[in-house]
């Protein structure tokens, strides 16, 4: 598929031919959902924790005698039904990560790129370099281009001035091509790829 190339100032800079096997697939929502779930699960810290009855620092002696009180039979005050007692089946420290085959991860990235291209949210620019690391000028440029929620993907390294200018801009993220991922692509309205990023992606999926 052919797509127009723009400069970062919004001018025409020719065309580029994108690989149909990466940018023109029939989007499968089930694969995207699997990859996003895998990504978000890996991000979870899993440090949630509550104390069970064996971990509560209260006396373990019997609260009162077994018979003759007319009350229910109880033992330790650390039982869950008492105030200050342990919690039944509470969360414990664990990893939420689960395995996902490499081929499914790679396919998920292709489908995410295809989804952006299909809905018209894919923009190719010749380069994303900035003359000055000025956030105000960068925000004005984004407004001029009509970009709001945007993910910018550069080549092997993010251009220094761009990395500095984008830090205080809400809803705009910049990644090197190695960091491109399904979740960030889908949660932004616009995906901006430099020509270096396109070349790297096509080389990666050869």
TrEMBL record:
PANTHER family: 50S RIBOSOMAL PROTEIN L4 (PTHR10746), LARGE RIBOSOMAL SUBUNIT PROTEIN UL4M (PTHR10746:SF6). One of its GO terms (molecular function) is rRNA binding. Keywords: Ribonucleoprotein, Ribosomal protein, RNA-binding, rRNA-binding. Gene3D superfamilies: 3.40.1370.10. The lineage of its organism: Bacteria, Pseudomonadati, Pseudomonadota, Alphaproteobacteria, Hyphomicrobiales. This is Large ribosomal subunit protein uL4. Pfam families: Ribosomal_L4. InterPro entries: Ribosomal_uL4, Ribosomal_uL4-like, Ribosomal_uL4_dom_sf. Coiled coil: none annotated. GO terms for cellular component: ribonucleoprotein complex; ribosome. Part of the 50S ribosomal subunit. Belongs to the universal ribosomal protein uL4 family. SUPFAM superfamilies: Ribosomal protein L4. One of its GO terms (biological process) is translation. One of the primary rRNA binding proteins, this protein initially binds near the 5'-end of the 23S rRNA. It is important during the early stages of 50S assembly. It makes multiple contacts with different domains of the 23S rRNA in the assembled 50S subunit and ribosome. Forms part of the polypeptide exit tunnel.
């Amino acid at each position: 598929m052919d797509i127009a190339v723009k400069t970062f100032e919004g001018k025409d800079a020719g065309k580029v031919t994108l690989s149909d096997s990466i940018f023109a697939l029939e989007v499968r929502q089930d694969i995207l959902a699997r990859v996003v779930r895998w990504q978000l699960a890996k991000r979870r810290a899993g440090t949630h924790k509550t104390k069970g009855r064996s971990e509560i620092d209260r006396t373990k002696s019997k609260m009162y005698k077994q018979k003759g009180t007319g009350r229910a039979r109880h033992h330790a005050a650390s039982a869950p039904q008492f105030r200050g007692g342990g919690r039944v089946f509470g969360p414990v420290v664990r990893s939420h990560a689960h395995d996902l085959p490499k081929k499914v991860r790679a396919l998920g990235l292709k489908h995410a790129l295809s989804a952006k291209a299909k809905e018209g949210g894919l923009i190719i620019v010749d380069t994303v370099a900035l003359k000055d690391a000025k956030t105000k000028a960068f925000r004005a440029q984004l407004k001029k281009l009509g970009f709001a929620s945007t993910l910018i993907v550069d080549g092997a390294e993010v251009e220094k001035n761009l990395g500095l200018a984008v830090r205080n801009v809400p809803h705009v993220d910049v990644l090197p091509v190695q960091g491109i991922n399904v979740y960030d692509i889908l949660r932004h309205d616009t995906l901006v790829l430099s020509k270096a990023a396109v070349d790297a992606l096509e080389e990666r999926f050869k």
